[in-house]
Amino acid sequence: MSQYDYLVVGAGLFGAVFAHEAALKGKKVKVIEKRDHIAGNIYTREEEGIQVHQYGAHIFHTSDKELWDYVNQFAEFNRYTNTPIANYKGEIYNLPFNMNTFNKLWGVVTPAEAQAKIDEQRSVLGGKTPENLEEQAISLVGTDIYEKLIKDYTEKQWGKACTELPAFIIRRLPVRLTYDNNYFNDTYQGIPIGGYTQIVEKMLAHDNIDVEVNVDFFANKEQYLADYPKIVFTGMIDEFFDYELGELEYRSLHFETETLDMENYQGNAVVNYTDSETPYTRIIEHKHFEFGTQPKTIITKEHSKTWAKGDEPYYPVNNDRNNHLYKAYKDLAAKQENVIFGGRLGHYRYYDMHQVIAAALQCVRGELKD
Ligand code: FAD
Ligand code: UDP
Questions:
Q1: Could you confirm whether 282 is annotated as catalytic?
Q2: Given pLDDT bands bounded at 50, 70 and 90, which one contains residue 370?
Q3: For the whole model, what pTM was predicted?
Q4: Which positions fall inside the UDP-galactopyranose mutase C-terminal domain (predicted)?
Q5: Which domain holds residue 10?
Q6: Distance 96 CA to ligand 2 centre (A)
Q7: Residues 11 and 113 in one domain
Q8: What are the pLDDT digits (tens) for 45-54?
Q9: Is 79 a catalytic residue?
């Protein structure tokens, strides 16, 4: 038997919070990670004096004071507020959908004028309760915004027609009748000064925790199950069961990163390309997350693609078919007594960082309550 109380599979946020809290309670934890670095998808690295978000733009936001205090133990946050813009065939619109967007699109000036325009356009639904993303989007913002800013972006992002996608995906975005370009409604928001990797590094820096990277759980699954009293698994739940009930669907991403010999490429951290012709969904200019003034800049074009075995699974595709299949895997997982499943892949859920931390804290507190 192993000298450890827990084996944590995956050094992302879920695994790191679990390991950290267990270590503070005197438990001995081994963490294995198949990538060559810790921090999972929140990993950032420094290049040209700029923190590069290697797996896509990450902005921390929450309204939960306890969570905000929790994460501030591990880093100081700057005052960054996410205000992405949309580029539709060269036309620029503010996001999320707010009075600035409505003014640019329709020339309306007051909230009442904007509301009247939305009401007129949503009447195509005939009062029907929205059952998919297309209907939900039209019901929230009308047909013009749906056509220019949502339809093609969403179909590029998810590889499916908006009529086949769940409504909740678009409800993530605020719709406001105020001139407020803040992408989130949350009370607290920012980017950790010095990047995200340090957060996970500090969580894992404890005498009771040993970390090994470049180690894949599946290379020795049966041995780990035999050796460790308890395993926390944050990889893909269907892969854990060797896809025996079928494959869950994921979206993968391809990142194209370039260093440019100029100070300022696009004037904003995030620009979404909402037409169907542009092959990528967005361009991130990393320095703008931290108000950088370096002489060079680094940009990343984010392409979305269908996941196939061997690709990184970034997004669960939470439609009815996949949620149903996930439930069946969850039932199998419940019978796997010594394994706890967690995180975006273990729970097959579109979690943001604050939600993953909350889920990990709840899990570890439940686990170690006595
Ligand atoms: P992960 O970070 O995926 O960690 C799981 C780890 O397990 C990985 O490192 C993986 O390599 C490892 N692993 C898997 N299988 C094995 C195995 N067999 N053996 C060993 N190791 C294994 N959240 C926000 O709050 N704000 C944002 O702005 C934001 N933007 C995002 C943008 C993109 C493009 C993406 C993809 C996500 C974004 N998120 C954002 C969500 C955020 O990334 C997640 O909430 C968080 O990283 C999930 O942590 P996790 O530990 O569940 O998963
Ligand atoms: N979305 C859109 N147009 C945009 C930005 C977002 O239609 O310019 C839709 C799209 O369906 C996306 C969803 O809103 O999947 C949620 O957007 P968010 O920015 O939260 O996605 P994430 O950062 O998780 O990729």
A1: yes
A2: low
A3: 0.96
A4: 148-350
A5: 6-79+188-248+317-368
A6: 9
A7: no
A8: 999 999 999 9
A9: no
150 lines ligand 2 (CB under 6 A): yes
Q: How far apart are CA 311 and CA 353, in angstroms?
A: 22
My answer on whether 210 and 158 are in the same domain is: no
Q: How far apart are the first and last CA of the chain?
A: 23
Residues 231 and 338 grouped into a single domain: yes
Nearest ligand to the C-alpha of residue 356?
1
Which tokens in the block code for residue 39? 């921090």
Ligand 1 centre to CA of 312 (Å) is 10
Q: Is residue 207 part of a domain?
A: yes
Q: Assign 20 a pLDDT band (cuts: 50, 70, 90).
A: very high
Return d(Cα 26, Cα 177) in angstroms, integer.
Answer: 51
74 and 193 in a single domain? The answer is: yes
Q: Is 149 in the pocket of ligand 2 (CB under 6 A)?
A: yes
Residues 238 and 339 grouped into a single domain: yes
d(CA 84, CA 94): 7
Q: Cis (ω within 30 of 0) for the bond into 96?
A: yes
- Per-residue confidence (pLDDT) for residue 1, from 0 to 100: 67
Query: Whose C-alpha lies nearest to ligand 2, atom 3?
Result: 150
Q: Is the CB of 344 within 6 Å of ligand 1?
A: yes
Average pLDDT estimate for 312-336? 96
pLDDT of residue 2: 82
Q: Is 76 a catalytic residue?
A: no
CA-nearest residue for atom 52, ligand 1, is 343
**Arithmetic mean of pLDDT over the chain:** 97
CB atoms within 10 A of CB 266: 15
State the total domains in the chain.
2
pLDDT band for position 151 (cuts 50, 70, 90): very high
